[in-house]
Amino acid sequence: KKSEASGVMAKADIKPKSMHRAKIWSDDVENLYRFQQAGYRDEVEYKQVKQVDVVECWPETGFVKKLQRRDNTFYYYNKERECEDKDVRKVKVYVY
C-alpha cells in the first residue's frame, strides 16, 4: 500500500517547464481547449487530480468526450471540433 501512495506522490510533482499559446488549431490544441474549459492545465493535471488512468475519448476523432470538473460536475463534448479559430490563441500549451 505504501509504495502505491509514494508512486502517486511522485506523479503529483509533475510541473510544466514552460508555457506558450497555441497559434494554429490541431487535435492536440482541441483536447487542451477541452481540459482548460473544465479547469485543468492538461491531461496530466486532470489525471493527477481525478486519480484516473484513462480519459474518455470519442473513438472516431480521439477528442475528449467527457471531463469531471473539480466540483464534480461533468462537461460533455461533441465529436466535432469545438475550439473555434478565435479561441485557439487562448489555449495554453505546456511543455514538460
Automatic annotation (TrEMBL):
Superkingdom of source: Eukaryota
GO cellular component terms listed in the entry, alphabetical order: nucleus
InterPro entries: Meiosis-expressed_gene_1
Family, similarity comment: Belongs to the MEIG1 family.
Known function: Essential for spermiogenesis.
The protein, known as: MEIG1 protein
